[in-house]
């Protein structure tokens, strides 16, 4: 892998198993797979704790609506309402300032 390129699930598994077979030689694994020492270490720790499923990239992936618990659904709904409320407040402030500036110019 080149610097900045994202590792696939298969590459993570290969690197992790390679490292563990060599008694956790993170430096050798880092050089062989072109991934930082810290990243190899993190993958090995996840693998030890969760198995291969720990190496699945869950970054920026939302759960499907059906997979969410009621608490997660309620929290998502609350965030949506809060964002809508914030947008409406900004819109009101803009209109107030705009109308005030219009009134000041006509006087």
Short account of what is shown:
With 107 residues, the protein is an all-alpha fold.
Structure description:
This protein is mostly helical and 107 residues long. The chain has 2 domains: 9-55; 68-106. It has 4 helices and no strands. The chain has helices spanning 9-21, 26-33, 37-50, 70-106. α1 runs antiparallel to α2 (26-33). The protein starts with 8 loop residues before the first helix and ends with a helix.
Write the layout of secondary structure elements.
Blueprint: H1 9-21, H2 26-33, H3 37-50, H4 70-106
pLDDT under 50 segments (min length 5)? none
In whole angstroms, how far apart are the ends? 68 Å
Helix % is 55-70%
Strand content: under 5%
Q: Please, how many domains?
A: 2
Task: Output the radius of gyration.
Answer: 25 Å
> Would you list the SSEs in sequence order as H and E?
HHHH
Mean of residue pLDDT values:
86
Could you give the count of β-strands?
Answer: 0
Structural class by sheet pairing and helices: mainly alpha
The rough form would be described as elongated
Q: Mind summarizing the main beta sheet?
A: none
Number of helices: 4
């Amino acid at each position: 892998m080149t610097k900045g390129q994202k590792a696939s699930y298969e590459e993570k598994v290969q690197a992790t198993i390679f490292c563990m077979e060599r008694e956790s030689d993170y430096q050798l694994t880092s050089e062989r797979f072109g991934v930082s020492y810290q990243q190899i270490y993190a993958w090995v720790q996840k693998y030890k704790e969760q198995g291969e499923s720990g190496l699945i990239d869950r970054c920026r992936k939302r759960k499907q609506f059906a997979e969410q618990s009621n608490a997660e659904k309620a929290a998502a709904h609350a965030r949506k309402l809060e964002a809508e409320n914030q947008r409406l407040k900004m819109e009101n402030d803009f209109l107030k300032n705009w109308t005030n500036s219009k009134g000041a110019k006509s006087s």
